[in-house]
Amino acid sequence: MEIEINDQQNFSVIKLNKKSILGNEGVEFQNSVLTTLDKGVNEILIDLSMVEYITSWGIGMLVHAFTTTTNRNAKFVLTGVGEKVFEILSKVRLNSVFTIREAF
Asked: Which residues of the chain are under the pLDDT cut of 70?
């Protein structure tokens, strides 16, 4: 899985450059989140603008990252969420758990 980390002044963006998130990317994704948090970042934006489909395993990957980030007193934000991915998140009511912003 291709992951880009872009550090800004007040936050970091982790961009997932893949059309489908199946969940087998979990270790690499979680390592990216942990590496970013270890830098002392207070807000992580997960850019899903390339993602068109996400499985339950992929959702679990996001929930795990959300929990890790929240436990470290940092903000976890999803950005660039497409219509299909948003529908899936809504069905499992995670749209009310995650902070979701338009692409920045």
From this structure: 1, 103-104
